[in-house]
Amino acid sequence: MWRLAVLMACAVMAGCGTTFNVDSVARLDSGLSALDFNDVSDQYEERPTFVNLVERGEDGQLLSIKVDFFGTDSHLYIPVESASDLLSFIDKYEKWQALAIQRDEQLEKTIGKTAGWGAFQLEAKFFSGSVGHHFFVVRQCAVGCRQIEDFYFDLEGAKTLRALLLDMKEGRLEPLNVDAIYQ
Questions:
Q1: Contact 49, 35 (CB under 8 A)
Q2: pTM, whole model, 2 decimals?
Q3: Which residues contact 44 (CB under 8 A, 6 or more apart)?
Q4: What is the mean pLDDT of the chain?
């Protein structure tokens, strides 16, 4: 068992070997909000969500989305090379969302999968919380998907994420040059 734990740790470190240069991280004012289910209110609620644009040198840009899940921070990493796939997944979610509302149906279905950053993989899912409440879910997993994190977005959040991904893909997101402004 100990050997398995060491092997898994090595696999994660090898896959996540690319590190971020602290100077290359810029906070974006995006309006993006991830959701999490609140047992007390019995509904999905917005969680504090922070989006950073990370410059990875020759590897291009990456969105780092940090979500505070009731005191525990989770990070979703979306590299520019995954943007096209995720854009098509969001388009499909929007079509399915309209169809599910029209038909008063609930379902849970995988939309598609794509490579994430390092050892991570991203899986997009359609998830119905109830009739009329359908979510775009990005599942980020590593090490054979034994470590899983799910990030829920409603229709508005999916559209905001889509806009961010499109801007990143087309090179319209630029980090703020803080040193040039704040001297």
A1: no
A2: 0.84
A3: 35, 36, 37, 38, 129, 133, 135, 152, 154
A4: 85
